[in-house]
Every structure is written in structure tokens, then in C-alpha cells.
Amino acid sequence: MTDKEEPAISIRNLVFERGDRIIFDHVDIDIPRGKVTAIMGPSGTGKTTLLRLITGQLHPASGDIRVDGMPVQSLRGNELYALRMRMGMLFQNGALLTDLNVYENVAFPLREHTNLGESMIRTLVLMKLQAVGLRGATEMMPSELSGGMARRVALARAMIMDPEFIFYDEPFTGLDPISLGAIVRLIRHLNQTLGLTTVIVSHDVGVVESITDVNYLISEGKVVAHGSPEDLRENRSSWVQQFMTGLADGPVPFHFPAPDYDETLLKEQS
Amino acid sequence: MAASTRSTTRRSRTGLAAFGAAWIFFARVVSLFPRACMRPLLVTEQVYALGNRTVPLVGFSGFFIGLVMALQLYGVLGRFGATVTLGPIVAITLMRELGPVISALLYTGRAGTALASEIGLMRATEQLSAMEMMAIDPVRRVIAPRFAGGVIAVPLLALIFSMIGMLGAWLVAVVMMGMDPNVFWGQMLSSVKFYDDLVNGIIKSIVFGFCVNLIAVYEGFHALSSPGGVARATTRTVVIASIAVLALDFLLTAYMFRGV
């Protein structure tokens, strides 16, 4: 039984390490049900890692990650797969299966998980492809698609099993304005019409702000700020202001830590 | 001193964990073999991709090796007046040794590398992660059918190699050198033993098939997600599988042909 007010995804005291580097240091995040939540932060802060932790592809050193009340870190084998049946994920490059055409890529989860007849599979696949505007591309191979088209096909595939949760990993990176607009409209449309709990990992502040309900800003293993886009705009923290307005000067230094510039140059000359 | 001991301990632990993980992976892939065969279409596709496409390479190699063996043996055996034994020597050598070993080495170079790089690229382009997220086990859907297809293909390639090798030897001995074809085939038929020569050769190539395909799928599945990582996986497949085939051949020969 799930309460409408309870977060769909709840993360408590999350600690994750890679070698000697701490990626997440006692992080708490709540992702509300049926809303669009963005996880933002500079490159290399572990945004994609967070998605992999939520979906059980990685295991935390400690802490609790609950999706619809289920502790993801404790789920194994079939339990984890049963939860993933309720999830869809759009990977940064689409991750389409390169030896299958568009139609077969979208039909792939149906063929693996159901015993539906070919006519039913065809109807469902064409419906999803129509929704992303690519019904005419069924015979194309992934290598023939543009980046934006590949992501739309991957979105159709992610939606084919009618998930409750959908995760987008950097969905706006490297898209031309028309493809970007199409993806943004699709994400918002899918959330509004199907009531999906949506998580977007991105650092495109301007685009993300236009479609999200809740934003989390993470940096150096901590949640720096969270709230609605308006809350973050009004946040007084110089770090948040620098990130949200894209200033080069601020608490996040432009230069990676290094010895003194003059000294280094003189030392090399001598 | 203490730091270096700690570093060595950590490296040993990591190495031991990787060794254990490799054996768990091997056990999983082998245990999925019967289940993979329950989806014959997937396995057939792989037998075609890995086996059929290696037939020209194996066929040409077998043919030329048969030609050279017959040329060499005809001269040497002629010195002792023993050319009648050419057929049996060629057949036994091909069935027991050259067929299984060379076809496994050729398979490693042609299909094992393709297998490792294909799986490695699937890893690098997140196709395997995408399957995980679709609640589809990539070991069951991608690895097991490829492994099963490869294991079926290798003994068949070894048989093709041996048969074409014998034809090559027949061409030199009978057509070029004028040896009596009845002597060539008759001596071969009477000397070759079904179990000792043919069955043992097939068992060898099945063992090589298991070994080469396991190494290829393991290296591909655990490749680092970068061009260098895929290249390293491909190279490691060739090096490790080739050495493993030659070492296993010695062990199997020592066990199978004691006193034969």
C-alpha cells in the first residue's frame, strides 16, 4: 500500500565510494510521485551514478534506497527484475540494440517478457512510435538515425511496457534545437498524460527548469540545494547562484588545483 | 614497508576476488547452456555467425595443410618403402591433433575475437545496461546463446577441417603422385579406429570449444567501456585462448592416448 503523499523514491544516508573517492556522502533525496524531478550538478558529480543506484545497477556502501517502499539495495535476481519491469530508462546515447531495426528494438521487451501475438505487438509498437513521431522509421537501423531520433526510439522502447517510473540520463545533451524541443515536449507530455514519476539527470539548467517540479542540486557528494525551480532561483547560496546562472567566477574554481603558475613556468625554464 | 605490504595485500584480495568472480561467471554461463538451447533460433543465428562464416577459413587451411602433409610424407615414407601408410598417418594426425587444435586456433582468431569485441562494444554502448533495465538478463539473452552457438560450431569446424585435409592429401598422393586410390582409402579405413581416433578428436574439440568460447564471452563481458578496453579484450581472447588450447591439448593427449 502506498500513500499518495509518500515519496515514490526515498534515499536516506546514501554513501557510495569508488576506490578511495567518496561519490555520495550521507545523501538524502525524496522524489515525489507523479512529478518531474531533476538531479542537477556539474559534470562528474555522480548524477548518472545516482540513477544506477536507484535502479539497482550499483550497490551503495551504506544507506537506504526505497522505490515504492522496496529497498533496492537488498533486492536480488527476480525481485530486482520485477521492480525494473515497472521502470523505464532512457540512456544518454539511446543504447539501442545495433543489430535490430527500429521496430524490433521497440518490440524487444514485449518479445522477451510476453507471449503476445504478432498483430498485438505490431499495434503496440506502432502506437509508441506514433507517440514519438517515428512511425515512418520502423525499418531503419540504429546507425541510420540521428542522435535525436535514436533517443526518441529509445523513449518509445522505454515506454513499451507502460512503466510507472521513468529515468532520463542527460536527455538533452548534443541535440539540435528542434530535436531538443521535441524531447522536452515528449517528457512533459508523458508525465502529464500518464502520471509517471519522472527523474531527469541533467546540467542543462534552462531546459530543465522549464519542465521540472522539483530540482536537486548535488556537488562533491552532497545535496547543495533542493526545491522548485523558483526556490533555487531565489536561493542566496553563492554556489547555487553560480550554477544556476552559469557564472565562470564563484565558489567553484575555473582552475583545477595546481601549483603556482609562475613558479611552475620558471622551474621548467631553469 | 607497511604501506607496500598493505598494497600487496589489497592487490592479492582484488586478484582473488576477480578469480572467484570469473569462475562464478563461467559456472553461470555453462549452467545456462541447456536453457539457451531451448531458444533454438537464437542459437542457430550464432552457429551461423560464428561457425558458418568460419568455414571458408577452416576449409582453405585444412586443404593446404592436407596438401603439404601428403607432399612431405610421400617423400619421407618413400625412402622406407612405406608410402602405403600415408593415408592412415594423414587421417590419424588430422583427426587426433591437427583438426581439433588448428580449427580451434583459427576459430579463436576469426570468431572468438568477433565475439569478444561484439560483446565489449555492447557493454561500451550501454546495450547490456539497457537490457538490465528492461529486466532482461544479458547473460541469458546475449552471452548464453553465443556460447552455445560457439560450442556447437567448433567440433563441426574440426570435422570439416579434417575431411578437407584428407581430400587435400588424396589430391597430392593419388592424383599428383599416382598412388593407388584403393590403397590410400583402404589403408586409411582399416587403420583408423572409431573411438580412439575419431571420438577422442571430437571430445578434444568440444573441450576446446568450451574453453575458447568461455574466454571470449568473459573477456567481452568484462571489457572496459572504451576503445582501448575493447581492443584489450580482443587481444587477451586470442592470447589466453590460444595458450589454453595448446596446454589443454597436451593434457588431453597425455590422458587419451596413453599406450594407444
What can you see in these coordinates?
The complex is a heterodimer of chains A (270) and B (260). Chain A is an alpha/beta fold and 270 residues long. Chain A has a domain at 9-86 and 163-269: P-loop containing nucleotide triphosphate hydrolases (Rossmann fold). In chain A, 38% of the residues lie in helices and 23% in strands. Chain A has a six-stranded mixed sheet, sandwiched between helices. A four-stranded antiparallel sheet of chain A has the order 2-1-4-5, with no helix packed on it. In chain A, helix 4 (118-131) packs across helix 5 (147-159). Chain B has one domain (32-256). Chain B contains ten helices and no strands. Chain B has helices spanning 2-31, 33-37, 40-51, 55-79, 86-124, 127-133, 138-176, 181-191, 194-221, 227-256. In chain B, helix 4 (55-79) packs antiparallel against helix 5 (86-124), helix 4 (55-79) packs parallel to helix 7 and helix 7 packs across helix 9. The mean pLDDT of chain B is 92. Chains A and B meet through helix 2, strand 6 and helix 3 of A and helix 6 of B.
| Strand order in the largest sheet of chain A | 6-7-8-3-9-10
Strand segment count of chain A: 10
CATH superfamily of the domain at 9-86 and 163-269 in chain A: P-loop containing nucleotide triphosphate hydrolases
Q: From N to C, what is the helix and strand string of chain B?
A: HHHHHHHHHH
Order of helices and strands of chain A: EEEHEEHEHHHEHEHEEHHH
How large is the count of helical segments of chain A? Answer: 10
Please indicate the percent range of residues of chain B in DSSP E strands (runs of 2 or more): under 5%
How many individual helices of chain B? 10
Largest sheet of chain B: none
Largest sheet of chain A: 6 strands, mixed
The secondary-structure class of chain B comes to: mainly alpha
Q: Kindly state the mean pLDDT of chain B as a whole number?
A: 92
**SS-derived structural category of chain A:** alpha/beta
Label the overall shape of chain B. elongated
Indicate the mean pLDDT of chain A: 88
| Overall geometry of chain A | globular
